[in-house]
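[job 0412] stage=fold_complex status=start
inputs:
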Amino acid sequence: MSYKAPLDDMNFLLKDVFEIQKNLGDIEAFKDFDEELYSAVLEESAKFSENVLFPINREGDEEGCSFENGIVTTPKGFKEAYKEYAQGGWQGLSGDPEFGGQGLPKMLNVLTEEMVYSTNTSFCLYSSLTSGAYHAIHAHASDELKALYLPAMLEGRWAGAMGLTESHAGSDLGVIKTKAEDSGDGSYLINGSKMFITGGDQDLTENIIHLVLAKLPGAPDGPQGISLFLVPKIMVNDDGSLGDANGVSCGSIEHKMGIKASATCVMNFDNAKGFLIGKENRGLYAMFTMMNLERLSIGIQGIGLAETSYQLSKNYALERKQGKNAKGEATTIIQHADVRRMILEQRAYTEAGRALAVYMGMQIDKQYHHPDELEREKSEKRMAFLTPVAKAFFTDKGFDACNLGVQILGGHGFVREWGLEQLVRDAKIGQIYEGTNGIQAQDFMVRKICLDKQSMLSEIYDEIEISINRECDLPEFKLIKQQLVDLKLEIDSTIDWMKDNFKIRGYDIQGGATQFLHAFGHLVYAWMWLEILHGTENTDNKLLVQRKKVGAKFFSQHLLPQAFDLCKRVKMGYKDYIELDESLL
Amino acid sequence: MSYKAPLDDMNFLLKDVFEIQKNLGDIEAFKDFDEELYSAVLEESAKFSENVLFPINREGDEEGCSFENGIVTTPKGFKEAYKEYAQGGWQGLSGDPEFGGQGLPKMLNVLTEEMVYSTNTSFCLYSSLTSGAYHAIHAHASDELKALYLPAMLEGRWAGAMGLTESHAGSDLGVIKTKAEDSGDGSYLINGSKMFITGGDQDLTENIIHLVLAKLPGAPDGPQGISLFLVPKIMVNDDGSLGDANGVSCGSIEHKMGIKASATCVMNFDNAKGFLIGKENRGLYAMFTMMNLERLSIGIQGIGLAETSYQLSKNYALERKQGKNAKGEATTIIQHADVRRMILEQRAYTEAGRALAVYMGMQIDKQYHHPDELEREKSEKRMAFLTPVAKAFFTDKGFDACNLGVQILGGHGFVREWGLEQLVRDAKIGQIYEGTNGIQAQDFMVRKICLDKQSMLSEIYDEIEISINRECDLPEFKLIKQQLVDLKLEIDSTIDWMKDNFKIRGYDIQGGATQFLHAFGHLVYAWMWLEILHGTENTDNKLLVQRKKVGAKFFSQHLLPQAFDLCKRVKMGYKDYIELDESLL
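[job 0412] stage=fold_complex status=done
writing structure:
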């Protein structure tokens, strides 16, 4: 049972579907790169993921992280793998060259990230949180802080962690209790305790840079009174060398269903020295600019795990003999229609998701680097709008895919040695952290649709229109195009219903938020399948073209139609249940 | 976080919905029992489950079973709990009084079983497998074997286990390799190895009675050449006392995703002495009569775990504060429409499932004990027809419920100490063992519908017709009734399509088997909700009546409608995918 990175598919998306050279080639930041380089990076990333990360994935799950005398130890092999990862330059792949990054496009980075999630989700989280912290510092910290901290983070010598959640405040950050006091010397004293801190402590890197949300004295109540601080585990001298330990300690680690090789920590800050990032009381704003990237990353976790489940379960089905066919020959279970259904369902969702991830990577590249301000704005809007869809739909469908994988293996899927059940356990957290998928759905329904003042939806509809109007003679293209047009009408009528009822009745319509997000997810995936089919005209890889046609057809026949039913369920509303006494629930 | 058995609901189902006194009162076997006794049994079962089994459930998961020097050890507390279970007479609850059982109805037993699954699924499996072995011996073994083995099994002093699966033969029992040779003294020598044997070894009981499928020399190939043998772990003397060890040993135990306190064993039979049950080469037949009961039991596991998830997640939502309402008051998350949706979805499926389990229990009682042969036959058909639906739909919806429970708890759902994630892991196996849900769906679509010669479907349709024609003025009743009539038309047209295409094209239609089973599951649950609503007229419990009306309405508005979409998906067919080269999957 092994994982092979889907390099053909990945190169196809970059070159033939989203034409990276055409779309990014004129942008100053990317002008030194070409398709050959992108392809070589994918290949190297594949080797590292297949040969270094996958082999330590299951042992990492079995061993888990341990916590003793205040110290977190990661499982065997993780330290060496992380060192190799850092030395290979993977942490700085799309980082700012000013701070030692390689400046490669996010379009490429989403694919290398997928491979890392596919082969070792726990490992990937250490890197992903470092990227998140890097982005927040890069966007909002002073030049001094950036110069002092970012290079070591991009080198992978120091990691990052995010201190948001407190025990009494999960998704509601407005009520946190951690306090910050101005020391008068440009630093602050941080006191408080945070929980569910991924990579809050570990033994992989020399230092850990915590970004911590805290309240200053006299700050306003609620979200408008939260500030963001950079709090290193070990103090950093002006020359970048490490100084004394800061007042940062790990209190315990969680025992979890999955991602067991990723340390989830309670972190205590006792008179820890911190540095303000961005403006006072504007911490949530600084955090949110980074959060879209983190949410996309977690979405990609769902795609990565789904890809691994697809591969492992398909390979098992190809080899597992069971029963005989009409001619009396021993058959493998891949000949069963029900097994084919489960394989194709995994693939049809995963490939559309991967396409959307690359599309969103392209929006990030344009948002930060496009010379034209209008283009930057448009890309930012598209990215903001699609983020909750990507986070929730990728991870929900990723979880489903892993469960289908287990079903294909039957009893062997439930037994640990085959690795499928670990995928389910690792995929489960994707639906929860970085804002539960329920919260993503509410964000999407209310902020992105009902209260939107920026016409974000029409920005995406414009893009879909371009896809619909492409020239493509494939019958599969015409089929999905028609379904997409029909579904868009149904979605529009659902949006009308949502807006009307949101005005009248308020928040009870959110009972249908998850269904609406899923319906919209199918619309977006249909659009991605159009793009994929259109892209097949740019390649000579006949097998790949055939596979895309099969995937598109399966999606259109067996998956997309349920979106209509989801819309109906949204419009049924929840007004009968929102005022109901709790004893009747 | 604790579990309280839903006694009001259970008593309501027995007394008011399925009128146990009216339906079973005239049957000789049950004439000594009355509702007061049934209610008292439920109450005692609740106490035992809440106070003895639930407290050792999470520790049992953490500790798991261990295997050392050929010996399986169950987690702390299991031995004492099993002893108490046996002494309380729970193992013999619905057993034949001739062999020391209490002869109570299965209608009651399904509810006590649910409580045991709810509170400790691993524990329940030891008991459930013993019941399965008891039934096979009771139905097919000689009087001598029955007299020698059944009393100790009903006492809970000896357990039972089922040796079916071999490493190369999962769901395909026709190709097993375990051999049996006639010793000429009325016994047989059994040689071979079995895997995935639940409770194959343990330290709870004095003896384990293995039922083992094996092939006699010269037996025909395939399913028609399999015989069933009773193989005790320790030989039993004629007076029922224990003799020497038999050639039965545990080779290893599996490391699994869940049900960790249930030992899943590789069992080796080396010249083990066995006794034929039923006729030579008719072993699968003997096994299958027991299998419907086992499948219902596994279905009930799904309901039990869903009930626990519903309770734990609802209680959490009632207590967990997050955010403020429009008046600035701190709110609990149960006030969110999305959380209410997740709570009601769990409840609406679970309560319909529980009703169906009780209905099926009643069919079993009639099948074995009704004085009228025609009634016995009808009940047997209903039970056989509904078995795959109950097994697969109960466990699929049970798994979904546990996942909704985790989502309600958010990060706390993923952390082990809250117990929700264990429910997901324990529920997962229900979709796999006793025939994967994919296999249940194929059995249902092909054997129970397309190839049925016994009009099993019309037997159930007759019952549904009775429900539809009941007098009931509740608006919810009228609503579901109309939906049920509409859905039945859609299902009928789907069945026509299935039969036509099965004749023409054969097995590719099975790609839609799971969807069809789910569609039919919604039809059956709608029927159950009709029965529940009708039953509310027999009770004065106003809160219960209100809760049933809410559950029925939610089911009709938000859950039932998806069945129409599922039917469409079935009729879309899989002919485009069945012949596809494997490289295109």
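[job 0412] summary: Residues 283-319 of chain A form the longest helix (37 residues).
[job 0412] exit 0
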